[in-house]
């Protein structure tokens, strides 16, 4: 029995309980589903047994009903209470405080989950007790985590009760993925709306998660824009209508005081959380609870691109209301029908959420996503030194742009990264993305370029909707705190006064790089682009705003105006473009955060780091630029091929882990690997690769002998 409970402790969901009559008392066979329980990490489903003589009573009292099931209560400590009345579960103000309490709590965690579920039921009729002749097979087929469809082999069909429930022919995951891919291709070729492809993929995810991630991993280049930006933007706009199946967790302003206990409603271990408050989704504005779509899409990429286990990711939407009138007036809107919280009330929600996550999953990484600028910076500042967290819009974007600039230096033929000091940057957009980018570039100009802080400011011209920002600008605090040092350093002159136009700034600054994070479509006009082409042999042009409809220019605009000479990288995807005059083809790179965040997250989690440092981000950027091949550089690529994302992420993770070790943040086991490694980080790379989740079907049953042995041992 002790062995039984030890196993139960490791599992999260009891799906099947069945009674087998045996000499000396019936045996209860519990079929547990758990990604964590296995003798090898490849097994995700197992069966094991223990004994009991009683099943449920038909008493209506939920507590007695649970007691009637004799397997569990016998093992409860004498001071155990009904978990539904347990105040350290239900009262968020008093979570387990001491280590002993925590251990005790963890010990009975799965038991509490189970008891909690049962105690919520009102009558015995509502409890589904599965016996030997119920439809275990159908249950498995309808569970997206374990379902393999036609991919169950003969032995599994037999043992899991699936035989006859799926068509007789066996197809491997490779063949299944090929079939679904053909459907996607047919949709693409018939010019079906991208949102149709998004829905097709979501339906697959609802049926068979392994196959979904396999497809996504095999075709990440083409599917990332379907699963994430730009298509996910459309999905978020219509999220209430598309809502089919609950995914992730919502925490609302009404949950204050309950968030700690709510985290225990989630099924198991979590390594990474992506959280949004839906206040600025992909530049589409305030989408409230519809922001959940972005957290889900992002985590799909963490799985496909980084190799996180899909069972260990948690998408979160903080529903603190919305100021979006059309959502408030929409009778089908799934979020809270109230105005957005502001000030102290808003930060109370954030704070309780952060503490609840850290309490429940102390090692989990929290990634902030699509928070509006006025909160994004403050939240990051508040937590970055105490929590393992980062903001992808600010830091991820900045790192990927830095990687793009390092890549551009290679295309320009620079001998090393120090030549970044010769670049003059015009940044259009002083929001969280824009300022995150220039802050990181500024540091790179100092560190790689060897300039002083003051000298480095001279390389930057910052613009917002009112034109050039100079020392004469009255800034709004704390909203524009990040702008202040750049504004102070940029003295207004007659030539370039405060508010100067973009064309004037480009012309008079003689800038070499034009960056856009303004959300203004067409901001880089033909005149501006032409001017960039006139003053630079290879102008750097990065229109980073998302989605495509917000991009500052298209690849075609840039190629046309610069005769295909531009080093181009955008936030949303564009096709390579041909110049009309010389016919030269300009490479359209995508400065996709996907290059950074999966590897950064993986490295941070694997290293056991406590925080994400600025240097980890810079190391990630360097890792990406270092992966460029000579051939790619010749073609004007500033990023490696996205289809290599698994390896790119592993390389990024290696650098992040090494950086964590340098900072004294890495766990001992990882430091040992680094200490015994060669100059190419061979061992560390292998360690990371081994840790990556691979979407393959795993064997799903233990041999019958194993079950018998467990029963006999008992
Ligand atoms: P935001 O709304 O906070 O900031 C926009 C900024 O643009 C403001 O400072 C505004 O004054 C400025 N602006 C508006 N009109 C302008 C004009 N005519 N000229 C110059 N500046 C102007 O937005 P946030 O969060 O900073 O994001 C900006 C864009 O960056 C979004 O489209 C977002 O999708 C994109 N982004 C791109 C990423 C990537 O490429 N990897 C990642 C994250 C964000």
Tell me what the structure shows.
The model is unreliable at 1-5, 7-95, 114-133 and 702-707 (pLDDT under 50). It is globular and about 80 Å long. The chain has a seven-stranded mixed sheet with strand order 11-10-9-12-13-14-17, with helices on both faces. It is of the alpha/beta class and 714 residues long. It contains 32 helices and 17 strands. The chain is 44% helix and 11% strand. It binds 1,4-dihydronicotinamide adenine dinucleotide. The site of 1,4-dihydronicotinamide adenine dinucleotide (NAI) has 29 residues, from helix 19, helix 20 and strand 10.
How far the N terminus sits from the C terminus, by CA atoms, comes to: 7 Å
Number of helices: 32
Strand content: 5-15%
Tell me the number of strands. 17
Question: What are its keywords?
Answer:
alpha/beta, binds 1,4-dihydronicotinamide adenine dinucleotide, 32 helices, seven-stranded mixed sheet, five-stranded parallel sheet, disordered N terminus, 714 residues
Outline:
This protein is of the alpha/beta class and 714 residues long.
Write the layout of secondary structure elements.
Elements: H1 2-10, E1 13-20, E2 27-33, E3 45-51, H2 62-67, H3 87-90, H4 99-107, H5 109-120, H6 136-141, H7 154-160, H8 173-189, H9 194-207, H10 209-218, H11 220-227, H12 231-237, H13 239-242, E4 249-252, H14 259-263, E5 272-276, H15 292-306, E6 313-319, H16 325-328, H17 343-360, E7 365-368, H18 373-383, E8 389-391, H19 392-411, E9 425-428, H20 432-447, H21 453-457, E10 460-464, E11 467-468, H22 484-489, H23 502-509, E12 513-516, H24 526-535, E13 540-543, H25 555-562, E14 567-570, E15 577-578, E16 585-586, E17 588-590, H26 597-607, H27 614-626, H28 630-634, H29 645-662, H30 668-675, H31 682-691, H32 704-713
Helix pairs in contact: 8-10, 9-10, 10-15, 12-15, 15-26, 19-20, 19-27, 23-24, 24-25, 26-29, 27-29, 29-31
The structure holds 1,4-dihydronicotinamide adenine dinucleotide.
């Amino acid at each position: 029995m002790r062995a039984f409970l030890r196993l139960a402790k490791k599992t999260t969901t009891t799906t099947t309980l069945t009674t087998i009559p045996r000499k000396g008392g019936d045996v209860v066979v519990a079929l547990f589903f758990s990604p964590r329980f296995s003798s090898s990490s490849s097994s995700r489903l197992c069966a094991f047994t223990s004994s009991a003589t009683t099943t449920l009573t038909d008493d209506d009292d939920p507590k007695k009903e649970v007691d009637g099931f004799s397997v569990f209560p016998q093992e409860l400590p004498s001071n155990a209470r009904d978990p539904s009345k347990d105040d350290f579960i239900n009262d968020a103000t008093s979570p387990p405080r001491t280590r002993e309490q925590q251990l005790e709590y963890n010990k009975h965690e799965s038991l509490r989950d189970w008891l909690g579920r049962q105690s919520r039921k009102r009558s015995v009729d509502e409890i589904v007790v599965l016996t030997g002749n119920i439809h275990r097979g159908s249950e498995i087929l309808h569970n997206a985590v374990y379902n393999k469809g036609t991919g169950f082999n003969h032995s599994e069909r037999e043992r899991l009760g699936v035989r006859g429930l799926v068509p007789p022919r066996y197809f491997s995951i490779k063949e299944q993925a090929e079939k679904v891919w053909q459907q996607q291709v047919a949709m693409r070729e018939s010019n079906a709306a991208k949102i149709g492809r998004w829905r097709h993929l979501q339906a697959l995810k609802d049926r068979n998660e392994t196959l979904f991630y396999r497809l996504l991993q095999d075709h990440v280049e083409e599917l990332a824009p379907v699963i994430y930006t730009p298509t996910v933007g459309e999905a978020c706009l219509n999220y209430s209508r598309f809502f089919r199946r609950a995914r992730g967790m919502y925490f609302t302003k009404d949950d204050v005081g309950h968030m700690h206990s709510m985290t225990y409603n989630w099924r198991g271990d979590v390594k990474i959380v992506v959280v949004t408050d839906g206040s600025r989704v992909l530049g589409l504005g305030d989408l409230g609870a519809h922001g959940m779509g972005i957290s889900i899409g992002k985590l799909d990429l963490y799985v496909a691109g980084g190799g996180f286990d899909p069972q260990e990711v948690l998408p979160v939407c903080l529903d603190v209301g919305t100021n979006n009138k059309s959502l408030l007036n929409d009778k089908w809107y799934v979020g809270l029908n109230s105005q957005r919280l502001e000030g102290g009330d808003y930060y109370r929600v954030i704070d309780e959420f952060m503490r609840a996550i850290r309490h429940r999953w102390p090692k989990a990484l929290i990634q902030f996503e699509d928070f509006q600028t006025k909160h994004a910076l403050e939240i990051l500042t508040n937590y970055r030194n105490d929590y393992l967290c980062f903001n992808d819009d600010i830091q991820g974007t900045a790192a990927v742009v830095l990687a793009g600039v390092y890549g551009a230096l290679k295309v320009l033929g620079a001998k090393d990264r120090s030549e970044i000091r010769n670049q003059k940057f015009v940044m259009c957009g002083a929001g969280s993305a824009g300022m995150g980018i220039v802050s990181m570039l500024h540091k790179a100009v100092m560190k790689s370029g060897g300039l002083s802080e003051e000298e480095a400011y001279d390389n930057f011209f910052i613009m917002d909707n009112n034109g050039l920002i100079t020392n004469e600008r009255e800034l709004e605090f704390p909203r524009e705190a990040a702008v202040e040092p750049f504004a102070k350093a940029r003295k207004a002159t007659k030539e370039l006064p405060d508010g100067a136009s973009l064309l004037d700034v480009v012309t008079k600054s003689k800038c070499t790089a034009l960056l856009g994070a303004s959300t203004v479509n067409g901001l880089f006009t033909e005149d501006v682009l032409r001017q960039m082409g006139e003053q630079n042999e290879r102008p750097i042009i990065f229109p980073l705003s998302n989605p495509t409809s917000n991009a500052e220019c298209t690849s075609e605009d840039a190629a046309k105006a610069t005769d295909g000479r531009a080093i181009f990288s955008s936030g949303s995807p564009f096709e390579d473009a041909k110049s009309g005059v010389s016919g030269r083809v300009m490479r359209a790179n995508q400065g996709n955060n996907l290059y950074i965040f999966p590897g950064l997250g993986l490295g941070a989690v694997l290293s056991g780091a406590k925080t994400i440092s600025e240097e980890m981000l810079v190391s990630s950027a360097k890792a990406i630029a270092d992966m460029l091949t000579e051939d790619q550089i010749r073609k004007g690529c500033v990023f490696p091929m996205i289809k290599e994302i698994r390896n790119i992420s592993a390389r990024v993770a290696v650098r992040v882990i090494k950086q964590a070790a340098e900072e004294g943040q890495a766990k001992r086991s990882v430091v040992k690997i680094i200490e015994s490694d060669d100059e190419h980080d061979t061992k560390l790379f292998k360690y990371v690769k081994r840790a990556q989740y691979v979407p393959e079907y795993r064997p799903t049953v233990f041999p019958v002998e194993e079950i018998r042995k467990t029963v006999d041992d008992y």
